[in-house]
Design goal:
It contains six helices and three strands, in the order ααβαββααα. The chain has a single domain, classed as Zincin-like (2-Layer Sandwich), CATH 3.30.2010.20. The N and C termini lie far apart (30 Å). The longest helix is centred in the C-terminal third of the chain and has 19 residues. Helices cover 50% and strands 10% of the residues. With 125 residues, it is mostly helical.
Length: 125
């Protein structure tokens, strides 16, 4: 168990909370109910789906404007992989906070229907 985990989690939760509350009202209304799950690293199922072990975040489920297609749908949520973000930040807390914010906004963009090109154009790659 990583001894830094409680701090990583606390900082990430605070950064997501602050970021959410800085969004324009209409985006905040759409994003508010979307759960954010904080994980250490991607699990075996995510890796089996072809994602890289150093993945920083992932949006799963139906986008905001999509209807559920059946009983096997995963509820929409954002997954943030905090130990990977910490490694990406090379142990710098300011960089960690910024990357938590950027990764959250990137995945929120997917929830709102943006693709990779849309996100890149907004500086959220």
């Amino acid at each position: 168990m990583n001894a830094a985990w409680p701090r990583l989690l606390r900082v990430a939760e605070s950064e997501v909370h602050d970021t959410l509350h800085r969004l324009p009202a209409r985006l905040r209304v759409a994003a508010g109910p979307l759960p954010v799950t904080y994980e250490r690293v991607p699990n075996a199922a995510i890796l089996a789906d072809g994602f890289e072990p150093d993945l920083l975040g992932l949006f799963v489920g139906n986008a905001f404007d999509e209807e559920a297609s059946g009983a096997l749908d995963v509820p929409p949520q954002i997954l943030l992989f905090l130990e990977n973000i910490w490694d990406f930040a090379e142990g710098d807390e300011a960089v960690y906070r910024e990357e938590v914010r950027t990764t959250y906004l990137h995945e929120l963009g997917h929830y709102l229907g943006l693709d990779e090109l849309d996100l890149e154009e907004r500086g959220l790659e």
